[in-house]
Amino acid sequence: MTDDGTDLMTIGELARTTGLTVRTIRYWSDEGALPPVTRSAGGYRLYDAESVARLELIRTLRELGLGLDAVRRVLADETTVAQVAAAHVSALDAQISSLRVTRAVLSTVARRGSTAEEMTLMNKLARLSTAERRRIIEDFMAEVFAGIDTADPDIRTRLRFAAADLPDDPTSEQVDAWVELAELIQDPEFRVTMRRMIEFNAADRGADVPTSSSLWFVSRMVHLAGDALREGVEPDSPRAAGIVRALIGDADPAAVLERLTAVANVRLARYRELSAIVNGLEPPSAHEEQFRWVVAALRARTAAG
After folding, report:
1. At CB < 8 A and 24+ separation, what contacts does 45-50 make?
2. In this predicted structure, what is the pLDDT of residue 163?
3. What pLDDT, in 10s, does the model give residues 201-211?
4. Using one digit for the tens of pLDDT, what is the confidence trace for 268-282?
């Protein structure tokens, strides 16, 4: 209460009532968010009980991150708290998404020990628009499947080939995986490797294999080699020779070995792993034990002539 007996408060009394500093209240008042009710004879700002409620609202809105312009519009009834909150949520979502990208890039830079040039490239890849990311994916798909999907329209289905793109609200892990994946699928050498793998799966499907089957050779390999491993069949044993014949038929073991080794690339396995992460899936099994057994068995057949 002021000395003249009114219920008006000075800025100092308002500060003591609300727990805010005089400096803060004066700043908000100067910015038009908290105009004084009147001034004293000496020119000091005076506030009333309604000013206390207004000040609490200003403090809450500011603590939630709203700018003074938005606060003024709420107080002037030019917009509602709900409308401002909705707009602020959208802005925060964009900021969080940007921070996730930043964190993912810096995490990758730290893990790889990247140079400034590599960091710049990674940051650029991570911040590509949806349309730009899709262009990279479509260019990759067009090159590795060119001509093959014309001769074998079901090849993409059989390979369960899914293009990986970031979801609308990606995790840091997904952004990190996308950066590495984008680098990988733009590498000309990797594209050649991927195309060889696709050609291998397209060429090795027999005429009696239904078009709806998926990775039939790999499925048979995993099944037959898995049984052999469980039963303790040695790759260079006579029984293994029969399993190899069941797997490849009359094909030349040396030719199959060469092609199988060529497509069983570490980078292909990494591609599958990264694609799964970006798509929010569990990384696929590489079936390494089964693959090693088949390779050893093929080598034994090749050595035996």
Report:
1. 45/10, 45/11, 46/2, 46/6, 46/8, 46/9, 46/10, 47/8, 47/9, 47/10, 47/11, 47/14, 48/7, 48/8, 48/9, 49/7
2. 64
3. 676 555 444 43
4. 878 888 888 888 887
Structure tokens at 164: 């990986």
- Tell me the CA end-to-end span of the chain in Å, nearest whole number: 107
Q: Cα(170)–Cα(280) distance, rounded to whole angstroms?
A: 9
Closest CA to 6 of 49, 56, 53, 36: 49
HSE toward the beta carbon, residue 25, CA cutoff 13 A: 23
Amino acid (one-letter) located at 288: E
| Contact call for residues 266 and 224 (beta carbons, < 8 A) | no
pLDDT digits (tens, 9 = 90+) for 110-150: 887 878 887 887 788 778 887 888 888 889 888 888 888 77
Partner residues linked to 46 by β-bridges: 10, 38
DSSP string, the chain: --TTS-S-EEHHHHHHHHT--HHHHHHHHHTTSS--SEE-TTS-EEE-HHHHHHHHHHHHHHHTT--HHHHHHHHTTSS-HHHHHHHHHHHHHHHHHHHHHHHHHHHHHHHHT--HHHHHHHHHHHT--HHHHHHHHHHHHHHHHTTHHHH-TTHHHHTT-------SS--HHHHHHHHHHHHHHT-HHHHHHHHHHHHHHHHT--TTS-TT--SHHHHHHHHHHHHHHHTT--TTSHHHHHHHHHHHTTS-HHHHHHHHHHHS-HHHHHHHHHHHHHTT-PPPP--HHHHHHHHHHHHHHHHH-
Token pair for 166 = 């970031």
% of residues, the chain, pLDDT over 90: 16
- pLDDT at position 36, please? 92
Tokens of 214: 């998926």
Tally the residues of the chain.
305
At 161, the pLDDT band (50, 70, 90 cuts) reads low
